[in-house]
Specification:
The chain is mainly beta and about 160 residues long. It has one domain (about 1-135). It contains one helix and ten strands. It has one helix at about 150-155; strands at about 1-5, 30-35, 40-45, 50-60, 60-70, 70-75, 80, 95-105, 110-120, 125-130. A hairpin with a 4-residue loop joins strand 3 (about 40-45) and strand 4. The chain is elongated, with a radius of gyration of 35 Å.
């Protein structure tokens, strides 16, 4: 099947092979493929409450191999500080990275027909932290101060006075 269009997730999700998944959101983000041959294809879909299985049935015309490259262009997660008292679910975040996957299409005898490279760029997931509680204000201790009038009052009596 030919890859007409697909949009990878913006964040890497470890349950999928890196660079080999697609986001689908009804009416917003589409996944489209084409039948590049003159034979029919049956698409069989099974849905349950927890998963979807899609099977494609047709005449095999080619062999397809997927080769994943090494990850590169790593990025640090963005740090987001939530103010103390706000609802917050802290997370350590994840690195972002890029990866190139190559689809190698060969005929049934094993001769390579073409290669298709697709680069996926994943954003790092945010590192969410909560700011610490505010530190209580420290009030300086009250100390007695002496004024000239107070000093005269506190002085020892003078003779004759």
């Amino acid at each position: 099947m030919g890859d007409v269009t697909h949009t990878p997730h913006s964040f890497y999700i470890s349950r999928y092979p890196a660079g080999r998944e697609a986001t689908v959101f009804d009416g917003e983000i589409e996944l489209a493929f084409s039948n590049d041959y003159d034979t029919g294809v049956l698409i069989h879909t099974i849905c349950t409450d927890s998963d979807i299985t899609v099977r494609l049935w047709g005449t095999k015309h080619v062999e397809v191999e997927s080769i994943s490259g090494d990850r590169f262009d790593f990025t640090s997660p963005q740090v987001v500080v939530k103010p103390y008292g706000q609802s917050c679910t802290p997370s350590g975040g994840t690195q972002g990275f890029s990866i190139v996957n190559t689809r190698v299409i060969s005929d049934l005898a094993g001769a390579e027909i073409r290669r298709e490279d697709f680069t996926t760029v994943y954003n790092g997931q945010q590192n969410v932290v909560r700011s610490p509680p505010p530190t209580p204000a420290v009030t300086p201790p009250v100390t007695a101060t002496s004024t000239p009038a107070a000093a005269a009052t506190d002085a020892a009596p003078t003779p004759g006075g």
